[in-house]
Amino acid sequence: MIWLAALVVLPPFLAAFAGMLSGPSLTRLVRGLPGGGPGVIACVPVAVSLVLSAIVAFAVWRDPGERTGTLTLVDTGSVPIRVGLQVDGLSAVTGLMVCCVALAVQVYSVAYMKDDRRYSSYAAFISLFTSAMLLVVYAGDLLVLYVGWEVMGICSYFLIGHRWEERANSRAAVKAFLVTRLGDAGFLIGVIVLGVGAGTFEIGGVLRAVGGLPGGAVTAAALLLLAGVAGKSAQFPLHTWLPDAMAGPTPISALIHAATMVAAGVYVVARLYGVFLAAPAALAVLGLIAVISMVGAACAALAQDDLKRVLAYSTISQLAVMAAGLAVGAKSAAIFHLLTHGAFKALLFLAAGCVIAVAGSTMLAQYGGLRRGMPITFWSMTIGLAALAGVPPLSGWFSKDSIIEAAQHAALHGGESAVIPPAAPTSAGYAQCKFDSSLVCTPIHDDSTLGTLPPVHLEISYNAPAMDLPAGIAWLVYLGLLVTVALTAAYAMRTWLMMFFGEPRGSYEARDPSRLMSWTVAALAVPAAILGFFGLGASELRPHLGASLLSVLLVALGAGAAFLVWNRDPALDPARALGPVRPAFARAFFVDELYAVAIVRPVQALARYVVTFDRDRVDAAVVGTARAAGRLGGLLRVLQNGNLQTYLTGLLAGVVVIVAGVVIFL
User: Fold this and answer.
1) N or C: which terminus of the chain has fewer CB atoms within 10 Å of its end residue's CB?
2) Percent of the chain that is helix, strand, coil (3-state, to 5)
3) Does the reported pTM lie above 0.90?
4) Is 171 exposed, middle or buried (0-12, 13-18, 19+ CB in 10 A)?
5) Whether residues 294 and 414 fall in one domain
6) Backbone angles phi, psi at 36, to 5 degrees
7) Domain that holds residue 533
8) 199-209 per-position pLDDT tens digit
9) Is 610 exposed, middle or buried (0-12, 13-18, 19+ CB in 10 A)?
10) How many independent structural domains does the chain possess?
């Protein structure tokens, strides 16, 4: 199984390697196939990975449990690095989702990027991006995970700045790289703290050792990990890079938002959930970050004029919903929402790409009445927006409902999570167990014939030992979720109405784009619509009457308000109803401007001072020394000018001086 998981990661990596080195040559060899060489290199390996990941997921479904394996062991002299992989239910379903979205993006890109002269490098970086995310998903060691984590960062830099000729694109790429690096610095320190403290970087070993580590060290490590999570998943206060990252090609946005990069942060919290359960303060911070991010981003999405920025802020908000689920103990519901979000967000971005390709603009004001000329795009995007808003029975409704139910329970029960402790192992020695916050079962028995039994680490699931969140934080999370549901429905309805209804506001011909793009979008509409039903087998993922009715009511309230405002004058933007707060919402509460004043400008001023000091002081000293040496050499060079007459005159003068001296003094 471990080697099969390694084979899932390998094909996209080989595709990236081949595409970067031999893309043009392979284009000539397979010129007659769709997409040429780069298209074949991009799509076929990801399709192979999809088949292999499906086999892995099926095997885990048939025989649940954790499989780990070591590919090689690196002896560092202190804490060894175990290059190994881990396969369980979490990694299996996430890996399958990554491969599905990556294949859809690659197939879609064959048509969307057909006229791009750098398509070869574009496809290669997407393959490398996919391979890096799969490495994060299947990693069994924190350092192996960190390698994939960082490779995704550099891939995002190159893909966001794919059209680097435009200054705005290159600046967006640099901003994304720097902001995420800021968080990654904390993430790396957190990984080192956990690995050194536990004596191993193996994820299972770290989770087993957490209970024996000092509480302060665990809390510090969890908070440092959250810094990296906030950067990668674009959560407050490191969220500002994601809206600007829309400068990249639209298929890249689909991959970043749905299956890689931003999804990695939430996945890592779920993978290391035992660490966060052992650090309640970190969970409280996660809850606060989630509330600020989901409500603030939803407000910003409500006032955006650019379609891709609407979807970007919706991603920040939905990732915060997942973080809220993790904060209140609903791990399964959070991961379920990660999967459903991957389906409907990939659908939304690729459908938006269809509209952008036809209209030649990302501005909502340039759309209108597109439903008649673009029926496939219309119905597909309708499903995607409805799933985003949480309209039953689409996928987003199921996953959001589970998170709202868990948050409601935590708020009404003083911050206590809705989960219950698992049963202890059934063998005699483990008839009674004492649990700690890292889910380690220490056996309690009086029968000396059993000897000393080792502690047993229990897999964290929705039914994990209860953890307590401060009651105030629990209420903030719950109320924030309710507000976010209404706001999400409002901006989804606004986007839908401005794009597909009213009178056409552009001079282009509205039509569905190429079949390759339209069919890919239509295919993604299927999981976006039905994926929620796959969670009915788990009790914690089934809809709950109270939370379901409340969320449906809020969806109707938000969508209805947007419709009523739009219906007064379909030619105008419903966001006009925001009145004086619209500029603040449109500028995302001026956080970028605040960072510019508090951070960017002081750093630039310091950089200018350093340049000036280096030029006028350091360089001046070096250059001055060189000039002084040059002048001294110029004086000495007078005597060595290559003129024989001068040399002879000097020689005779010297002889005369010597003779005169001898005559005078002797």
Assistant:
1) C
2) 75, 5, 20
3) no
4) middle
5) yes
6) 65, -165
7) 280-578
8) 999 999 999 99
9) exposed
10) 2
